[in-house]
Amino acid sequence: MKNPVPQAASLLLEKLLLLVHVRTLPVGSGEEPATAPGYYDTSCFKRGDLLEVPRTLFIHFGIYLGENRVAHLMPDILPALTADRRHIQQVVTNKRLILGVITKTASIRVDTVEDFAYGGSILVNHMDRLFEDQVLGSEEAARRAEKLVGATAYSLLWNNCEHFVTYCRYGAPVSFQTDKFCEAVKMVIRDQRSVLASMLVGLASIVCLGLAPSTTLPTIFIPFFLWMAG
Question: Where is the active site (predicted)?
Answer without folding.
Answer: 161
